[in-house]
Every structure is written in structure tokens, then in C-alpha cells.
Amino acid sequence: MHKLDIPQSTIDSITRRAGRPHPFDSIDPRRTALVVVDMQNYFVAPGFMAETPMAREITPDVNRLAEGARRAGGHVVWIQNVTSGTRDAWSTYHEFLQTPDRAAKRYASMADGADGHALWPALDVKAEDTRMNKKRYSAFIQGSSALETHLRGRGIDTVLIAGVATQVCCESTARDACMLNFKTLMIHDALATDNDALHNASLNAFYLNFGDVQSIDEALESMARGARAAAAAQASQGMNHAKAGAPHYHGP
């Protein structure tokens, strides 16, 4: 996995602003979704144009995080980038930000049903998880996917971001999640890109202004802490209801 390098000045800035280094250190797992971005062959498998070797290295970590989120009561969404229907709708990207040969190769490799669109086979995807296509870097931007509607329908208010590449689709999705008022955490040891410098620059920029950066273990503990807080609040509410409904003795 990448070596995390967040400057102490960033941590100090967050602590001054939020009162603690992790603003989302207690999250209700029942209202949390792990959004795994683009862990598909085009970005993970050897030989593809956007192969990111670190994505193969973090696969067991992504699986561990997904299992922990499910066990805690959270929801897991596997996002797959698809190029079908984007040649004209995202023409600026295909015509100006890629050479014609690269654009054609990218378009063909991630078309719906192409090998590059398929999820990396070592991922532990369960039947209760959701799989969803996106058509832009961000899964939340208009016209990209139905992710926001899907999460709102399940009462989700918190998202954990994992996958590839840290500073491209993962950060884009994470920033837009914040803009849509989701509590957003980037899970640094379940993210991958080409090198540590890109990884850390992305996380530092996100952490300063958009959300939280935690490890897998920290995120699992944040969910456990949130579950305990939710259970305590529910128990307290039950006691208050019981007291309110109890008969009162008014004397003879």
C-alpha cells in the first residue's frame, strides 16, 4: 500500500477547525456506504492502458474493509467506469485530453461488456452489494450514475471512498459527495494510484477542505463507536418513552 504522508500542519489545521483530528470519528454504520471506485480490469489488470499495479496490492485491503462494513451493518457499492454513450456526451475529454488512438482504445476497452469494464476477479463481491456504472470521473456528478439517488433511498448519510485512482475518480467522487452533504471519508490504505506523491497530494488537499482521511482500522473503529452511540441513544429513548407512558400516582 502507499505510505501515508500527511503534514503535521494539515493535522493541526483540521484539529483547530473541527476540535479533533478526525471530524468523523463516530459514524453510524447503518447509514454508511463503502463506495469502491473503478476496481476493474482496465485499472487493475496487467497490460491495460491505465494499469495501476498498486490497485492489485490493495485488493485484500479493499475486501477486508468491505467485509468489515457489511458486518457492522453498512452497505457496499462497487462502481465501474463505463465509456458506452460518452463519446459525444464527454467529447471534450475524448477529443482534446486524449490522442485519437488513446481515446479509441480507452473507449473500446471500457465499453459495457468489454474486458476492461469487468470487475477485478479477486474482489470479494457479495450478493447483497450493489454494482453500478458511472460515466464520468465522479460517480455523483449529473449524468454520471444513479449513486446519489440509490444512497438517499437507503437513508445513507456517510460514504467511505476506496479504489483507484486516488487523485482522479476517487477524489472527484469524494469531493462531490461532500458538496452533496454526505459525511465523506477517504480510506487511505484502500486507495491506489501511480505513486506515493500523487496519493498524498490528493489526500492532503481533500483532508484540508472536504472531509476526513482514515485508515481501514480507524474507519472500522469509527463505525463501531457510532454503533455504540446509536445503541445508547436508542436505549435512552426507550427509557424515556417508558417513563412517559407509566401511570402516575396522584394520591387518595
Q: How are helices and strands ordered from N to C?
A: HEHHEHHEHEHEHEH
Q: Write down the overall mean pLDDT.
A: 95
The counted number of beta strands is 6
Q: Number of DSSP helices?
A: 9
Number of domains: 1
State the name of the first-level CATH class.
Answer: Alpha Beta
Q: What is the level-2 CATH architecture name? A: 3-Layer(aba) Sandwich
- Major sheet: order of its strands? 3-2-1-4-5-6
Overall geometry: globular
Largest beta-sheet details? 6 strands, parallel
What fold name stands as the CATH topology? Answer: Rossmann fold
CATH superfamily (homologous) name: Isochorismatase-like
* Proportion of residues in β-strands: 15-25%
Please state the structural category. Answer: alpha/beta
Helix content: 40-55%
Q: Low-confidence spans: pLDDT under 50, at least 5 residues?
A: none
What is Rg?
21 Å
Quaternary structure of the protein: single chain
Termini gap: 74 Å
What keyword list fits this structure?
single chain, about 250 residues, alpha/beta, Rossmann fold, 6-stranded parallel sheet, 6 strands, about 45% helix
What this model shows, in words?
The protein has 252 residues and is α/β, with parallel strands linked by helices. The protein has one domain (32-240): Isochorismatase-like (Rossmann fold), CATH 3.40.50.850. Helices cover 46% and strands 15% of the residues. Helix 7 (166-179) links the parallel strand 4 (158-164) and strand 5. The radius of gyration is 21 Å and the shape is globular.
